[in-house]
Design a protein that fits this description.
five-stranded parallel β-sheet; 48% helix
Length: 346
């Protein structure tokens, strides 16, 4: 079986094998988005269920269990994630599946970005029956911060009294968005951000042109860089950055109209990185994320007062907490850009 993890995860995989000798009932893997955490924990889940685990800890890829896993129908495995992340119909028995999979939903509602309490409750039957081959049962859940409050509370009860022979593998991009009680009941395991050279080398192996710019713009996360490049263009990002480069009220309102349907979390992240570059250039003359905009960043860094810049950074960081659940996307973007304009306009 080919190595299913990314090159920058090799050391973490070796550390995980030590932990495996005394396996906790719940492990929370955490790190930056776009670095391959989901693939890492899926590989670990498969290895926990494999009937012929290799010396390096990877699944064999050839046993009956690996066959079921690769076909997404392993009876002792469940994956829980928001509907919005499902790129294909869930396998039979997988949380998030409709009760009647043969019928299309009547509603054309947008897929939920939350993990709901019903998905956690559906795990009860799974955990109360014997495992198929007297081995472990494994539940993978990601991203953990997508748990809404009722789902978080329901999961907490399960983690407080874990069923025997059951292992929970959770993944999070933001530990500070999880209940402290959930954090306290999981063994935390850090997954690394690759260094720039390793990430850049991997992206070039994937045939990505202009890999350095894509990687910098995505904060050094190689999978995010690859996905963004495959999406086709930087149009939404450039619309935002051009407004940030020359802030004024009219431009802020016009840009908010154009970007009202853009992913809000991405807009906030792009602005956070822009502000980091302005601050970094002001202090040291260096730019991390947007070297394509060096001229504009330098001009802004020279004109904006440090206290106002710090206020803009604070406001943007606070806005990240509500980006996933705004009352109105357009008003959210307007408020964000008008705040920025108030702090950074000449």
């Amino acid at each position: 079986m080919n190595n299913p993890i990314y090159p920058w995860q090799s050391e973490a995989w070796q550390q995980l094998q030590v932990l495996r000798e005394r396996l906790p009932h719940a492990i929370l893997f955490y790190g930056e988005a776009g670095t391959g955490k989901a693939d890492f924990i899926e590989a670990f889940a498969q290895s926990l269920l494999c009937e012929n685990v290799q010396a390096d800890g990877f699944a064999c890829g050839a046993c009956a269990s690996c066959g079921w896993f690769s076909q997404h129908n392993h009876p002792d495995y469940r994956r829980v994630r928001p509907e919005a992340l499902e790129d294909e119909p869930p396998a039979e028995g997988e949380e998030g599946a409709d009760a009647d999979s043969g019928k299309k939903a009547k509603s054309a509602k947008a897929p939920s970005k939350e993990i709901k309490i019903e998905q956690i409750r559906q795990l009860a039957d799974f955990m109360n029956i014997s495992t198929h081959r007297q081995g472990l049962r494994v539940v993978v859940l990601y991203p953990a911060e997508a748990l809404n409050t009722p789902a978080s509370n329901a999961l907490l009860k399960t983690l407080e009294e874990p069923p025997p022979g059951t292992v929970f593998l959770l993944s999070s991009n933001s530990l500070d968005r999880l209940l402290p009680t959930i954090l306290s009941r999981c063994r935390k395991f850090a997954l690394p951000m690759p260094d720039h050279a390793a990430a850049l080398g991997w992206l070039k192996e994937q045939g990505l042109s202009d890999a350095d710019s894509w990687l910098r713009e995505q904060g050094g996360a190689p999978l995010a860089a690859l996905a963004q490049s495959e999406a086709g263009n930087r149009e939404e990002m450039d619309i935002l950055l051009q407004m940030l480069a020359r802030p004024n009220v009219e431009s802020a309102l016009r840009t908010a109209e154009k970007l009202s349907k853009a992913p809000l979390a991405a807009l906030v992240s792009w602005q956070q990185r822009w502000l980091y570059d302005v601050f970094s250039y002001k202090l040291s003359g260096s730019i991390r994320y947007y070297p394509r905009y060096k001229k504009e960043l330098a001009a802004l860094a020279e004109s904006v007062h440090t206290a106002k810049l710090l206020l803009a950074i604070k406001n943007t960081n606070e806005r990240r907490a509500t980006a996933d659940h705004p009352l109105s996307p357009k008003l959210f973007v307007e408020a964000m850009l008008l705040d920025y304009t108030g702090c950074c306009a000449p």
